[in-house]
Amino acid sequence: MRQENKINLSIVIPVFNEKNFLIKLFEEIKIFFNDSKNEIIFVDDGSTDGSTNILNELKEKKNYKFLLKLIKLDINSGKGKAIQTGIKNSLGEYILLQDADLELDIRDAREMYDMIKDNSEIKCIFGSRYLSGKLKKNNYFFNSLIGKFNSLIFNIFFAQSLSDVHCGLKILHREVVEKIKLTVNDFGIEIDLASQVVRNNFYIYEFGVSYFFRSKSEGKKITWIDGLKSFYYLIKSRFFDNSVSTNISILYSSIYMAFVGSHFGMGLGNTLFIIFFFIFGSIIGIHFKIVTSTIIFFSIFIGSLFSKGNGTTLAVIIFFVAGIFIARNVKQFFLKTKFNQYF
Q: Are the C-beta atoms of residues 289 and 327 closer than 8 Å to each other?
């Protein structure tokens, strides 16, 4: 069906009360994406400021070559819901996600599209507001701090190295889109999307983009409350949205790592070490299933049999590192076999 329509690129743009930006946005889209093989999908997420009328007027002018789709949601359901709706109605081989508020430059979106279509090995590119030497305007310290902190937590949880998990400018190959199932309806969609891309073993490339921050008086929707909610989505996506085997591995490794922590400190210090290692074990359980996790545990147990006092602590650390090394190699060996769920 998609080959019959010959749509190469679908640009999904969620819109909620963006009347001040839509005309300029549309003109920029015509400059960089005015091609009959592209489709632009505006998802009007229950706007009440006249955005709907502006979009209808722009469509009626027909002074563009691309396929233009307008989807209207009766009530405001959130950015995530709008993106999900747009993706479900897209036909392109590539799907580009672009915000409507012009904080992110359409020119950068074009550069990202050119890169991904010219390299068949790249299936996913995320924009990053923190990597580029491009023009920026950002005077909101708290938002920037939360964004960087969330990216750090995401990297720890998912063993990644992303600089900006929250950037709204992303482009995905259809192969990626067909593997993921987005469920978050609000601004947590960025974490939901990134986590599912990683879970499905797609590599995320990053591209530095320009950023022109707008204030709340200019229509900024995201707030510090959304920043706090993102912590919930990080926990949920990493520790709850897993297969049964992964959840068992998390519990299993958390328990034996608490055992490791019991070899450190005394009194209250010992309790804190147990708690820390329990949390650290939950992260190990994400990356190693039952068999490989058992290798780590067995190695640690052997280490605990050596020496006494501080000597035992050192032995446990050495054998733990050795166990990680062995488990990682065993995991790589079985990764592409039918037994991979155990490793």
A: no
pLDDT tens-digit readout, 84-139: 999 999 999 999 999 999 999 999 999 999 999 999 999 999 999 988 778 877 66
> What domain range is 315 assigned to?
244-342
Rounded to whole angstroms, how far apart are CA atoms 154 and 138? 23
- Across 300-313, b (16+ Cβ under 10 Å) vs e yields beebbeeeeeeeeb
Sign of the CA dihedral 218, 62, 64, 43?
A: positive
Burial of residue 111, with CB atoms counted within 10 A of its CB: 0-12 exposed, 13-18 middle, 19 or more buried: middle
| 8-state DSSP, 7 | -
Vertex 67 angle, CA 61 and 70, to 5°:
75
CATH value at residue 162: 3.90.550.10
Contacts of 117 (CB under 8 A, 6+ apart): 8, 9, 94
Same domain, 85 and 211: yes
To 10 degrees, what angle do helices 244-261 and 268-287 make? 150
Strand, coil or helix: 108: helix
Q: Which of 239, 261, 284 is the last residue of a domain?
A: 239
DSSP 81: H
Entry pTM: 0.80
Does one domain contain both 253 and 228?
Answer: no
Query: Do 161 and 18 lie in a common domain?
Result: yes
The whole-angstrom separation of Cα 66 and Cα 341 is 45
Last residue of a domain, one of 217, 239, 261: 239
